[in-house]
Design goal:
Blueprint: E1 26-30, H1 34-46, E2 50-54, H2 57-66, E3 71-75, H3 83-93, E4 98-103, H4 108-117, E5 121-124, H5 129-163, H6 170-183, E6 189-192, H7 199-208, E7 217-221, H8 227-235, E8 236-237, E9 249-250, H9 252-255, E10 260-264, H10 271-283, E11 285-287, E12 294-296, E13 300-305, H11 309-314, H12 320-326, E14 329-332, H13 343-358, E15 364-365, H14 367-375, H15 381-395, E16 400-401, H16 408-411, H17 442-460, H18 465-472, H19 476-485
Parallel strand pairs: 1-2, 1-3, 3-4, 4-5, 6-13, 6-14, 7-10, 10-13, 15-16
Antiparallel strand pairs: 8-9, 11-12
């Protein structure tokens, strides 16, 4: 059967050939003129669309309730049910439908009403079919990009909801409940916990579950920026404020406007910067370095530290008033040794991640290796566990991670795991206690004890004294004193 003959003006020129159109794009054409309906059906089907026609508004509304459409192309002037009523019904069924209106009687009032209801454009008959086809393609593409943007934002939110914070222990369930509770507020949060416990991930989870999630999340490690640059980094600067300041620069406080700023390792902040931050928290205003105008700061502040801020306050190293300003909602993350039941879950998560990244068929962790992982004390917490699993996947030649692929410190740890919540014992050779008065030197024995543990902590901290002091529960000042006394480097 031959195809129907169409008017010359609807012939499809080569220059107007449309881009590939997904077959799922469904169009509803509504017009009480049979010739117009048929012509639109032929033209749009040639472009690859799935076209349904309706001869009046009542039939169109029935079709809208019967199946899903991506685009509506409707005449405005029709008996009984008008195109505007069809448009209203279409938006009730699917608020995201792309709608075009047609009319032989150009009327400003009906066009305004159609646009108010959500039509993207309207055409006055007679109109160019090529122009119609072009606008349909353009609006469908714009609609597709908007939907992809929404999906991307949802995916981003999902990434930082709870999927990256893994655990089934009661301690972690408390963390999940706390995130849900405080996310909807704008209160300042102080997240504490040892290095590697995931304070950054929890801060992001709070932000991406909050009312500010559509706005920026900006993180700054206060210990990772030199003191001379921290003020500029945080508050920005004006041109000429210092040597090298060739242009005005926004600080992270401005970048995070309406969103969240996360100040990691806030205990490392200098006294001068503590005063400036306190003013921002009190007045929600700041000045750029070298500037005179005050800038509003509509931001949520979250801070994190692996130090005991109350102890720093007592030692005069952290402002008491700032501590109370940032400690509005305190949140503590447990170390990995206090939630050992989460170790297998985390290990499997990192195994899948790095096996995929390295394209290696390492599918599981052997029972022997799993026992060792659960027994180890994990001074570096989740970050250390991730590094250990990455190393194991890289070295493992078999489908399962075996003990030989684990680092020596994990393999040599006592094989019997400590009870959840208890710190694992550190192996040390202690000589039998001789009878008192038989030459026992308590001071010397005490020094041997300190020397052993300080050397062990330094080794496990990779030579970083601050981290080694944290492992031993010592102040950095005390640690440095004993390390110097015993000449341990």
């Amino acid at each position: 059967m031959s195809a129907p003959t169409t008017p010359a003006k609807v012939a499809k020129p080569e220059t107007a050939s449309p881009a590939a159109v997904p077959p799922k794009v469904r169009i509803l054409v509504v017009d009480d003129e049979p010739s117009m309906r048929e012509m639109l059906r032929i033209v749009l089907r040639r472009d690859g669309y799935d076209v349904t026609i309706a001869e009046n508004g009542r039939e169109a509304i029935e079709q809208l309730h019967r199946q899903q459409f991506d685009l509506l192309l409707s005449d405005i002037k029709m008996p009984d049910v008008t195109g505007v009523e069809v448009l209203r019904a279409a938006k009730d069924v699917n608020k995201d439908i792309v709608a075009f209106m047609m009319t032989a009687y150009a009327s400003t009032s009906t066009a305004v009403e159609a646009m108010r209801l959500g039509a993207v454009d309207y055409f006055t008959k007679p109109f160019s079919m090529d122009e119609l086809r072009l606008k349909i393609r353009q609006h469908l593409e714009t609609h597709r990009l908007k939907q992809e943007n929404v999906l991307l934002k949802k995916a981003l939110n999902t990434r930082y909801e709870f999927s990256n914070i893994i655990g089934r222990s009661e301690a972690m369930l408390d963390v999940f409940r706390m995130v849900e509770t405080i996310a909807k507020t704008s209160s300042t949060v102080l997240i504490t916990g040892e290095s590697g416990t995931g304070k950054d991930l929890v801060a992001r989870a709070i932000h991406y579950n909050s009312l500010r999630r559509e706005h920026p999340f900006v993180a700054l490690n206060c210990g990772g920026v030199p003191e001379t640059l921290l003020e500029s980094e945080l508050f920005g600067h004006m041109r000429g404020a210092f040597t090298g300041a060739d242009a005005n620069k926004k600080g992270l406080m401005e970048v995070a406007e309406h969103g969240t700023i996360f100040l990691d390792e806030i205990g490392e902040m200098t006294a001068a910067m503590q005063v400036k931050l306190l003013r921002v928290l009190q007045d929600r205003r700041f000045r750029r370095l070298g500037g005179t105008e005050e800038v509003q700061a509509d931001i949520r502040v979250m801070a994190a530290t692996n130090q005991d801020l109350q102890k720093l306050v007592a030692e005069g190293r952290f402002r008491e008033d700032l501590f109370y300003r940032i400690n509005v909602i305190p949140m503590h993350l447990p170390p990995l040794r206090e939630r050992r039941e989460d170790i297998p879950l985390l290990a499997d998560h990192f195994l899948s991640k790095y096996a995929e990244l390295m394209q290696k068929p390492v599918l599981s962790i052997s029972h022997e290796a799993s026992v060792l992982l659960q027994a180890y004390a994990w001074p570096g917490n989740v970050r250390e566990l991730e590094n250990v699993i990455e190393r194991a996947v890289a070295l493992e030649p078999s489908p399962a991670v075996l003990p030989d692929s684990l680092p020596a410190q994990v393999r040599s740890w006592p094989s019997e795991p400590a009870a959840p919540g208890a710190a694992a014992a550190v192996p040390i050779d202690v000589a039998p206690l001789p009878e008192l008065g038989a030459g026992f030197d308590l001071e010397a024995r005490g020094e041997d004890f300190y020397r052993h543990y300080i050397a062990l902590a330094l080794e496990r901290a990779g030579g970083v004294q601050v981290k080694a002091a944290e492992m031993l529960g010592m102040s950095f000042r005390s640690f440095r004193y004993y390390a110097k006394k015993f000449n341990i480097r």
